[in-house]
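ARCHIVE CARD
Drawer: 12
Card no.: 0347
Subject: one protein chain, sequence and derived structure
Cross-reference: see card 0346
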Amino acid sequence: MRELQSLVNGIGLGALYALVGLAAAFVLRVTKIMNFAVGGIVVVAGLLAASVTDLPAGLRLLLLLLVGAPAGVAAHLVSTRWLAGRPRSAQEHDLGGVLVTVALATALQGLGYLLFGSDLRYATPVVPAHTFGLGGGVTVTTGTLVLVAAVALGAFASWIVLERSGLGRALRAVSDDVVTARLSGVRVSTIAHLAYGLLGVLCFFVGDVSAQVVGVTPDNVFHIIVGALFGLVIGGGDRIIGPIVGGLVVGVTEAVVNARGGQFVANLVQLGLVLVILLVAPRGLFPDRTSRAVG
């Protein structure tokens, strides 16, 4: 039963990785940059949520979502905005852009330590905490259920934006070929600002949910984003299902192996899993088979 309980706990952890992976995949599809700053934005949002104790939980979440959009745009203006216009192919992942986002994530982590300290903090939950018995001594908490529901909501919202909206078509056009998109009348700078505004909203949503369920501390910045990016590598970033399945795989693996062999062994198993996926399916388990090479 220990393994079964670890499996249930791992689903909650994997759902958190999936949520952050969705945010990372969103900006990856638009900018071709693996954005480590996502982890920093999520953690800062969670720290803000945990510091607002005198507001109802629902109102706090609404206010955070309103703050998320300008925060996402600000992250773009101080980091990846300066990389705009650099020549690169549509399929190239920008190493310079990655390093800039790592620097921003580090800065956000330092800001978290400066403003909130290193203690683990929790936000007031929207859904009161409760534990349900599944039989045989196995339990599931409302926190795990909230994380799973948040994944479903985040995936649906991402699908609507990316696949069923004019904004999504413009985002994909900019991602494929900036010059052609500009000649077609797409305002590239405006689209980039909108993309990062949406990224900020998603990150602040994830930050609030994670602060409610698992707590938040600046120490979490790179642990969260590494787990999410491992999931992104495993599942692939071409389709929305990729980071969800990948994040769940990483979370369940970490929880189950950690229960038996400790965190170090869990990290080794995760690394081995990622290496195997890179060898047999470099684009992840769910590549976009309709995409075509350009050039």
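Annotation on reverse: Residues 19 and 150 are 8 Å apart (CA to CA). Confidence is low (pLDDT under 50) at residues 291-295.
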